[in-house]
Design a protein that fits this description.
By secondary structure, this protein is an alpha/beta fold. About 40% of the residues lie in helices and about 15% in strands. The strands form three sheets. Strands 1, 2, 3, 4, 5, 6, 7, 8 and 9 form a nine-stranded mixed beta sheet that branches. One of its GO terms (molecular function) is CDP-glycerol glycerophosphotransferase activity.
Amino acid sequence: MTLISFVVPAFRVQGYLRECLDSILGQPETDIEVIAVDDCSPDASGDIIDEYAARDQRVHSVRLPENVGLGPARNIGLDRAVGEYVWFLDGDDWLTPECLTEVAERLRGTRPDVLLVDHVRTHWNDTATRSAMAEVFPESPGVGTFRLRDRPEAMRLLHTAWNRLVRREFLVDLGLRFAPGWYEDVSFSYPVLMAAQRIGVLDRVCVNYRQRRAGAITRTRGDRHFEVFPQWHRVFHLMDSWGSATDALRPAVFERMIWHYLTVLGNGQRIAPELRPAFFAQITADYERWLPPGGYPVPDGVEGIKHRLVAAGRWRTFSALRAASRARDTARRRARTARRRVGPVARRGARLTRDGLLREYYRAELRRPVDPTLAVYAAYWYRGYSCNPAAIYEVARQLAPGVRGVWIVRRDRVDTVPTGVEYVVAGTPAYFRVLARARWLVNNVNFPDFVRKRPEQVHLQTHHGTPVKVMGLDQQRYPIGAGRMDFAGLLRRVDRWDYSVSANSFSTQMWDRAYPATYTTLEVGYPRNDRLVTAGPDEVRRLRAEFGLDPDEQVVLYAPTHREHLPGYRPQFDPDRFVRALGDSGRLLMRSHYFHDRDRRPGRPKDWERVRDVSGYQRVEDLYLMADVLVTDYSSAMFDYAVLDRPIVLYAPDWEAYRLARGVYFDVTAEPPGAVATTFADLLDLFRTDAVRSEAATKAREHFRGRFCTLDDGRAAERVVRQVFLGEPSERSSRC
């Protein structure tokens, strides 16, 4: 018999599900199965489950035809489980490394009905908060088992399904199922403990309980939080059906109920102000209904006062007490902030530099009406006219001619703006004016921190690549690569986004976890790649002729990425040796990352007629069209170039160091877009032997294209313009 069956329901967790499944399947203990239940999720959760099931026989995919909710989805997984123990793990949480070894050892050694494990709350800012395990059990409970009536303090551990493993036969015999609705853990976790004859506690952190910044029910306001009441009613009805066997536990269970109700009520992110009186009234009603005949242990201090106010039904006094407490906390917080700011404020005084005057001008412009016809475009921190914003701008001119597009560029990049394209120079009064008054703000990176998005404005974040390296909040786990990034500031910028363009499902999943906010994802392909799809042979010949490239020459584009953790790094690459390996008909185009646009270029290669530095060329799409082969490392260029279905070589001489220092989302050497070289000598051999076009390289590229390029059909920019500028509904609809 399998030892542990993991039941993992999935609904809108595409950004986190891979980490969850990897944390299970990567454990040293392998006597497991995973029942992953796609609860008709409108995102890619179901596809991720199918992907894992296809490559690991321990994973079983269950795709539900309609959304049933977390509780019923767990029940469906339980019905399919065959393990001796069941562990209900949520799809956005994950296990700690190697924890399953100790869990399995304890299960095999003591055979408990329920094994409670420890957890930490892992927050978006990469901090962790310990659970109450140490408070509930100041001394380790040891390896023995107990009944709840002997250790009722065990009820003070968080009442979730994922911090306990339950013996499946015991659960089936008990006939206990998850109820539908929110707070479904309540009517499962407490009865399981009350009915168990053998409860064990493993004082080891096993679960990372993700505190999501957006999307969690604990951060969702609404009247569905009233569903906590019927869940607790089920607990007491079940105790009634069990008779006197649970009478001794009623006082402790009652105290937990009131504690839970007050926790929900006290969370301003759950209960809106207008609903709080009714919620409080229901607490009082349940207090009167379920109060044990002999009373219960009322907490000390402020918590005890709250309980007594609930018992008396004194909402106004309760509300006034809460308001006074919040006012006191706010005053203390403001005092601390004022003390921190007094120095900088005093130093600034009334000193107004030119930048200060321009910011004042910007604030004044914010008070003027938004121009309903103005769209502002920018790319790569104002480096010029390029990338997804340029593709969207061109289509918007055709489909939305009433929209006036204005570009923001640096002063030293003005000469790159095409004729007829209106622009303003960054840092000028016109720059601040258009930022304050534009209806649409379009960028492939973030606008500066001072930019304030007005309610009437629409912010379109286009991004500029499919991520290999980790991005956004995920960089917190890789401090070497993240440098001094201000993650709180990053999230303030992300909160301005209304739309986020995604090139493929994989990017959508990664953006969800890297940039958690309430924007709408436009999974439509990359607008800048439209041209790669629509350009014909005549355009390719024209471009090559303009560059002085003969039709029969083999043109290779070398485009390495930037190493944030190694600013001066250049991969080992000798252009003269490389073109000699290409043969007499080979030409090499070299393009550095845009971060190096102001760097001093290296000396000219000896064979300069066959090597050209194209780093300053504005439109990389032209270079893709001219090239017969792309050589790159971890750059997003590989995803764009793959649209052309031409050979790609992954040159990864520092893969292990890059992966460990910078962090990556997937092993690009294991799932490459073509042939792979890890040394310069290997790279030369690939071209000398023409292995860049081998059957294995072609199959790898085909798989890569199937995963990342299916949306690039030449109409991505059109889809963006129609939805964002014209308000037309998206072509893509969810399946549920």
